[in-house]
Amino acid sequence: MAPSHTVRILDGNTFVVSEATGDIEATPTEPTGLFSIDTRFLSKWVLTINGERLNALSYDDLQYYESRFFLVPGLATHYVDAKLSIIRERAVGGSFRESITILNHDEKAVDLEIRMDAAADFADLFEVKDEILNKKGESYAEAEPDQLRLGYRRGNFRRETLISSSEPASYDRNGFSYRVHLEPNEQWDTDIHVRTHALGPGGRDLRIGLRVHGTERLALQHDLEEWIAKAPKVNSEHGELCSTYRRCLVDLAALRFAPLSLGGQTLPAAGLPWFMTMFGRDSILTCLQTLPFTPQLSATTLRILGALQGTRFDDFREEDPGRILHEMRYGESAAFEEQPHSPYYGSVDATPLFVILLDEYERWSGDVALVKELEQECRRALHWIDDCADLVGNGYIWYERRNTDTGLENQCWKDSWDSISYADGSLPPFPRATCEVQGYAYDAKIRAARLARDFWDDPAYAEQLEREAAQLKERFNRDWWVADGGYYALALDPDGRQCDVLSSNIGHLLWSGIVADDRAEQVAAHLVGDRLFSGWGVRTLAEGEVRYNPIGYHNGTVWPFDTSFCAWGLRRYGFAEEAATIASGILDAARYFDGRLPEAFGGYRREQTKFPVEYPTACSPQAWSTGAPLLLLRTMLGLEPHEGHLAVEPRLPVGMGRIEVLDIPGRWGRVDAFARGRLDLHKLAS
After folding, report:
1. Exposed, middle or buried, 146 (CB in 10 Å: 0-12/13-18/19+)?
2. Which of 559, 587, 642, 661 has the smallest number of CB atoms closer than 10 Å to its CB?
3. Where is the Putative glycogen debranching enzyme N-terminal domain (predicted)?
């Protein structure tokens, strides 16, 4: 992960990560550079004036797709008396454009050699992530009269970077340069265009809709303004809530990804830098979080995931009929089947979540046509739950990878190698069944029963699904309950032994509705208790467990998305006060990240750190972290579709003040919601 002082701009799955000067000097293992379709198209981009590197005075993140750098020649000193200043302004929109302005502040004329060193290693993002750069093809660099062509070929797989300039330049294999004479108070400008190409057989360009010219910058600005204008308006007495909300909307706009097969329609990519592509689980959960605010993302996500639903048994890709994909990649390693992501189906939660999103989307939108359009995909997903996923034959969803070389070991959302353990810290054998996925399966059956009865004209199927759901709930509450702890086990091993650790997964169980009513209070108490709730959010693994680590990826960190679903689950079972408590923690944390919540942060107690400690390799922005404040807004206001109308039942945290959410879209048209938080009596007394 790039260090925090880097500057990032992005548009869908095209992004640039650079130093504060705008320079790029990537090593094979650092995610700095210009990336698109899972390939690094620029690994070196270094500007010098008369052979000197430049020093950053400041930089501006103008929008998610553009930035500006203010520079002077030479090394940083305590006193800057520069006779030249340099402004680099760049934008990304499918490809990359940079303008350079140089101003002469001296009383005499100057002669300058302006040089841009450029190179492309065409690293696959997996090579960077895995810290292994092992190119098997041929790289080339061709200096042409009006451009520099950098390329890579391996059979029919070709990637090229084409660099040209509005001002005449001298191109060589390692970059390009200008010789410029500037009179006193004169300035010089040039525009540099970097076009990225993915070339197929016969040199056919596989990329569509590249946006590289200045007019497209205006189009991006107009698109962002339109995106924000369509979303509900949020007004609040809480100081940072409105700015956090706007940051979330902007980051969602930045993360919109248009797969090549969709003709411009977008769904949320998972997160920068490693996951700027289509993820089944991440895209679905983000859509669920953001439905009241950006419902248009859900229809696209459902359609593309339905279109790419598994149709056969393929051990390499872990594909089954009816299974929803986990991840789709476009880089070299996927093209040559060195990775299975073309697409890869190794997740057990995306399939039931697909059914859940379809129902939730209809409840909000009234889009009956899409429910009917995706009926067969929904039925196939439900069949996968009952047939392919039940590896042990006891009615639960299990996982065990079939691709033992490059497939994921853990195929739940906590997919790191050591995230599933017994209370003694040892790891269970495979296959494994995690608790939250059983809750998703239960919820999927209940929701699909509604769709079958109301839209598919199949009441018999609806009754079957409801019967199966009731049986699943009964079995689950028998097999997964840890009686001496008062919570549900994280997982079962193939012999039925419980992985009896206390984890945040129990919050997902509340959200799904699978928790027995007489046990919900104990579960709620754990979620806001000292072992799970840090004061900032819900820890993934409870303090005191053997594998607990406040900066362990899935073993003690706080994931904002995870906490948001815990809050939604608490609200579902009537624990509005508890939901407001953990919502307040996450929203307080957001202000320390300028409104942009990272993928994860440390699980340290709030009184211990006074501020949330960012996880060192957290993605940012990340889609489901971006969606967390939006879901928490929904939870605090108690927004629920009900019989074609929007029900509002607010319960705000103490001291939150008044919140207004205006023009909430849905089948009801657009409506407003208002709420006022309770006063903090302790502060008033002091």
Report:
1. exposed
2. 642
3. 10-192
Q: How many residues does the chain have?
A: 686
What tokens does 223 get? 């698109």
**What does the alpha-carbon distance between residue 499 and residue 432 come to, in Å, rounded to a whole number?**
10
Position 85 confidence tier, pLDDT thresholds 50, 70, 90: very high
Rounded to the nearest 10 degrees, how much is the dihedral formed by the CA atoms of 235, 236, 241, 242? 20
Cβ contact 597:628 at 8 Å: yes
Per residue in 435-459, pLDDT tens? 999 999 999 999 999 999 999 999 9
Rounded Cα distance between 298 and 350, Å, is 14
The pTM of this model reads 0.92
- The span from the CA of 58 to the CA of 136, in Å, is 40
Write the pLDDT tens digit of every residue in 543-571.
999 999 999 999 999 999 999 999 999 99
CA distance 174 to 181: 23
One-letter-per-residue 3-state SS of 5-22: CCEEEEECCEEEEECCCC
> How far apart (Å, rounded) are the C-alpha atoms in residues 478 and 89?
61
**What's the alpha-carbon Rg for the chain, to the nearest Å?**
26
Strands 187-199 and 157-165: antiparallel
Q: What values do phi and psi take at 100, rounded to 5?
A: -120, 130
Chain-centre distance for alpha carbon 310: 23
Q: What is the DSSP letter of 518?
A: G
Place of tokens 């509705």: 513
Which of the four pLDDT bands, split at 50, 70 and 90, describes residue 682?
A: very low
* 607-636 confidence digits (pLDDT tens): 998 899 988 778 888 999 999 999 999 999
**Would you say 467 and 448 are in contact if contact means Cβ atoms under 8 Å apart?**
no
Helices H, strands E: what count in the chain? 18, 29
Tens of pLDDT along 117-160? 999 999 998 888 877 878 999 999 999 999 999 999 999 999 99
